[in-house]
Amino acid sequence: MTAVTQDPTPSLDAGFGPLDPRLETIGRAASADAVAIETARRVPQPLIDALIDTGAFRSWVPSRYGGGERSLLDGLRDIEHLSYHDGSVGWCLMIGSTSALLSGFLAPQWAETIFGDPRVVVGGYAMPQGTARMVEGGLEVTGRWPWGSGTDHCTWIGGGVLVVGDDGRPTARPDGLRAPYVLFPADQVEIVDMWRTSGLRATASNDYQVEKLFVPEGCWGEFLRAAPVESGPLYQLPFTAVLGLGVGCVGLGLARRAIDELVALASTKKPALSSRTLAERSSVQADVARAEAQVGAASSYLRELAGDAWERACRGDQPTAEQRRRMRLAATFAMQSAASCVDACYHAAGGSAIWEDSALQRVFRDVHVATQHGMVAPRTLEPIGRMRLGLPTDAMQF
């Protein structure tokens, strides 16, 4: 028995304000072609072009470079909404949006060169998997990075590196540069096609690599150590916290879709040897109610903490260590709650959810890949709890 996949309008308001109607059109198009998109293992270029046209990838780019410089909540809302329609499309928007925050940390000449392009899309992996040797005029970079989500449609690709000396050991430049996130034009990067996974298949999160690639002076930023160049509130927020919130919003969008898919299925499906629809079964009624409360609570908590941090940043204040900790907690809680919600809907749907053309099957696989992201994985709860218990904890990791 194959489930009838529907693509309803989200039944639970994401609560972030008005949505660009073009994003709804893009989301519905992605959902309608979801099976083909998964099979291709990439988001089709026409959908990427349509997203570029909306300016969504540059929502968090400074206005002086032509970006939207929109609020934190607006950007998170867009990520959640697109993820409702298709997890891979929402994920690619999340990666592109959060990567674009680098625009607030780059030297102005490079920020203008890269982010002044109205069709720029940036992605990459920020952890220092590569090495950079000091050379005249910049750095010589070698490395291979995993988790390169969306790099097949990026115009610039970044990678975290450690500066090393002639002996190959980590060192610092005289100016203190240790672990920059360097940027390369996409045509100078080799993509290693290895992304074959259970879920989020169309994110094309392949490995990518460069060998002795010259990076000109200043074509990099340091999210964790350096002060932002831009003074706007977006760039006062911790990059890791914003990234975590974005990942959490992908999960929330998937969870909302799972609830709506189950509701649509439950009104017509009668399990074998039963005269009642799923909707008439008390266990399914309770599952739907619990799932709705769970995702609503997680979403409200995330919105509250993101909103508080945004208001503080708008006043010109840095987030406190406790705010950083709680934002990361909200992100992890959102993803864990989303996975629990999706699991409940998947099991309540029975055999209808096992087919590849079932939206519930796709959401189930997508959310369980998303739970493994380093910003929201279960292990992130350990330092979060450690700090709450008053034990020494480096709050910069949040």
Keywords:
single chain; 398 residues; alpha+beta; Butyryl-CoA Dehydrogenase, subunit A, domain 2; Butyryl-CoA Dehydrogenase, subunit A, domain 3; 7-stranded mixed β-sheet; 11 helices; 7 strands; disordered N terminus
Write the layout of secondary structure elements.
Blueprint: H1 21-32, H2 34-40, H3 45-54, H4 72-85, H5 87-99, H6 108-115, E1 122-135, E2 138-148, E3 156-164, E4 181-185, E5 190-192, E6 206-216, E7 220-221, H7 239-266, H8 282-314, H9 321-349, H10 359-370, H11 381-388
Parallel strand pairs: 1-3
Antiparallel strand pairs: 1-2, 2-6, 3-4, 4-7, 5-6
Q: How does this structure look, described?
A:
This protein is an alpha+beta fold and 398 residues long. Among the domains are: 122-221, Butyryl-CoA Dehydrogenase, subunit A, domain 2 (Beta Barrel); 233-397, Up-down Bundle (Butyryl-CoA Dehydrogenase, subunit A, domain 3), CATH 1.20.140.10. The protein has 11 helices and 7 strands. The protein has helices at 21-32, 34-40, 45-54, 72-85, 87-99, 108-115, 239-266, 282-314, 321-349, 359-370, 381-388; strands at 122-135, 138-148, 156-164, 181-185, 190-192, 206-216, 220-221. Strands 5-6-2-1-3-4-7 form a 7-stranded mixed sheet. Strand 1 (122-135) and strand 2 (138-148) form a beta hairpin. Helix 4 (72-85) packs parallel to helix 7 (239-266) and helix 7 runs antiparallel to helix 8 (282-314). The longest helix is centred in the last third of the chain and has 33 residues, at 282-314. It is globular, with a radius of gyration of 21 Å. It starts with 20 loop residues before the first helix and ends in a 10-residue tail after the last helix.
